[in-house]
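Data availability (excerpt). The following record was deposited with the supplementary files.
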Amino acid sequence: MRHDDDILLAVVDAHETLVRVKALVSPELPEEEAGFALGFDRSVVFVFVDPELDEVRVTSSMPAGLERAIFRAADVWERAVGCSVLWAWTLVNQQGYGDGLQLAFHRPGTGVECVTIQLVGCASILEVHEVKRVTRSE
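Predicted structure:
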């Protein structure tokens, strides 16, 4: 996982609220999400798969070679809009590649969980997963 100037740390520390999400695609795979533009109230964070390394990157500028998708981002993002990132994790696979990012969104000032989203880079595509807590059955 590579990132510029601890962008996610700054977003978490500032308690910025997510206001919009736009899917990003590469011209080679226009039907698949290669990244996302996460619009917070004071900044925009770009999360995408670096096609050369197949690792997830986080930057503050639009990645070269990607463009905004004509389709909407996955519905799970709708539950994150209006929420802040409380926790952010970088994920490293068994081969040492930083190919994932997990974001836990919470309602500002309340600690109420909105949704936890996991992004995993796979062959130049950024897969979106929802992470849910498993509870014991009685």
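Summary of structural features: The helical segments are 7-13.
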